[in-house]
Write a structure and sequence with these properties.
heterodimer, A: 108 residues, six-stranded mixed sheet, 0% helix, globular, B: mainly beta, four-stranded antiparallel sheet, 11 strands
């Protein structure tokens, strides 16, 4: 079974502080992992894929197969980063399973 | 490309009425997904299609929900009869066959059943 856990429902940091949004997964095979961001009442937007290993808006995420984690990090948070962040996993099928999400608030 | 297009953006209906949500995936995308988003449950996959064929509908809550994809450019999600607990944001997403790309979401339909 595929499962994604985001342990923090809410995360609040100050502008300029580092931020880490945690994501742990459960899947017996080789997963494909994603981070999506949803700004207030808007569509989900793809932020990162572990396959592409790119940095978007200063965010990075590394797949750690030993710890089954895919944490999202940014060294210096900005106010415009305030949003809901969802970690998602794709296993052997086309099905994309989401975590419950973490609401990030960046305070001025 | 206009992206994944959903209509209507907002729907308010009375309990017991039939509701039809519509989705136009990105041209050339082989897979289409319907998700429901609520505060309590987050994002739940209801059903997905591959090349217009329903592959997994295990997330469809009950028989009141049905989904169709008559062709590669159109899908519907129907709720009949609707109930207040169906109130949620319904998202449609599509993905191309090339796995180098991620899933693209529409803007969603905010459904309120009163």
């Amino acid at each position: 079974a595929q499962r994604v856990t985001q342990p923090e429902k809410l995360l609040s940091v100050f502008k300029g502080a580092p931020v880490e949004l945690k994501c742990n997964y459960s899947y017996s095979g080789s997963p494909e992992l994603f981070w999506y961001v949803q700004y207030s009442r808007q569509r989900l937007q793809l932020l990162l894929r572990h396959i592409s290993r790119e940095s978007i808006k200063g965010f990075t995420a590394d797949l750690n197969k030993g710890e089954t984690s895919f944490h999202l990090k940014k060294p210096f948070a900005q106010e415009e980063d305030s949003a809901m962040y969802y970690c998602a996993l794709k296993g052997g099928s086309e099905k994309l399973v989401f975590g419950k999400g973490t609401k990030l608030t960046v305070n001025p | 490309d206009a992206g994944v297009i959903q209509s209507p953006r907002h729907e308010v209906t009375e309990m017991g009425q039939e509701v039809t949500l519509r989705c136009k995936p990105i041209s050339g995308h082989n897979s289409l997904f319907w998700y429901r988003q609520t505060m309590m449950r987050g994002l739940e996959l209801l059903i997905y299609f591959n090349n217009n064929v329903p592959i997994d509908d295990s997330g469809m809550p009950e028989d009141r929900f049905s989904a169709k994809m008559p062709n590669a450019s159109f899908s519907t999600l129907k709720i009949q009869p609707s109930e207040p607990r169906d109130s949620a944001v319904y998202f449609c997403a599509s993905r191309p066959g090339d796995r180098a790309y991620g899933y693209t979401f529409g803007s969603g339909t905010r459904l309120t059943v009163v």
